[in-house]
Each structure stands twice: as structure tokens, then as C-alpha cells.
Amino acid sequence: MTNHQLVWRPTDGGNVAVVGRARRWLGAALPRLVGRRSRGHLHDDTELLLCELVTNAVVHAGGVTAVRLGLDEETLRVTVCDHVTAPPVTRHAAPDADHGRGLALVEALATRWGVDRAQPATGKCVWLELPTR
């Protein structure tokens, strides 16, 4: 899928502070990867969805093992790998709930998303794709 890829492997991926570090990594990595090809809201959408996937990995899957950004001609793929093989579950949050909307946001903003088994380690990789143009 990708012509270009950047990978980040946090050393303490089980700590909730990894969400902020992932955001900072993205802020430096995304401009290097997409350059001038990006559509207006690509950075904002990518940051929001990356933070949702990283938070899910920390809260529900023992932490983050890797974050990848991949780019081809028209698509940015964001991948977050974790320690648990069970797939994520989309929840239907109550209107006043302060959590439970992460995958609903992914479904709303991403053109595609899915789950692959992490290789060679155990766990899974949740990925999503966003158009760059």
C-alpha cells in the first residue's frame, strides 16, 4: 500500500502520557511525509484519530508497541499496534458519556479502517486510511 513509511516505537507505550508523545511525533513526522500534498484538514483529522487509537491501545490493550504512518499517491495510512489480539469493539456511547466514541470517530472520518495481526510479535495493529487530497 505505501510508498513511504515512518515508524515510532515508544519505550513506555502502556503509560497514558504516550498519547501526548504520539501527538508530538505526528506533528514532526506528518509534514515530512506528506509535504505539500495534504488536503486542508489532514493534520487535524490524523491527530484526532491517532490519539483515539493510541488511547484505545493504552486503555484496552496493554499499551502501544508501534505507530506507523504510510503514504502512497492519494492515501495516508495510520497504524497503531498493541499487545492484545482481540479486535476493538465499536461502542454506542450515551450522549452524556465522556468516553466510548473513539471508533465511531474513526468510522466517520476514515475512508477505510481495519485490524491486522501484529507481525512478528503477538498483538494486533489497528489501521485507518485518510485521503491526502
Automatic annotation (TrEMBL):
Q: Using the record for this protein, list the coiled-coil segments as residue ranges, or answer none.
A: none
Superkingdom of source: Bacteria
- Residues spanning the signal sequence: none
Give the Histidine kinase/HSP90-like ATPase domain ranges. Answer: 20-128
Keyword vocabulary terms for this entry: Kinase, Serine/threonine-protein kinase, Transferase
One GO molecular-function entry: protein serine/threonine kinase activity
Name the UniProt record assigns to this protein: Histidine kinase/HSP90-like ATPase domain-containing protein
| Organism field | Dactylosporangium siamense
**Lineage, broadest ranks:** Bacteria, Bacillati, Actinomycetota, Actinomycetes, Micromonosporales
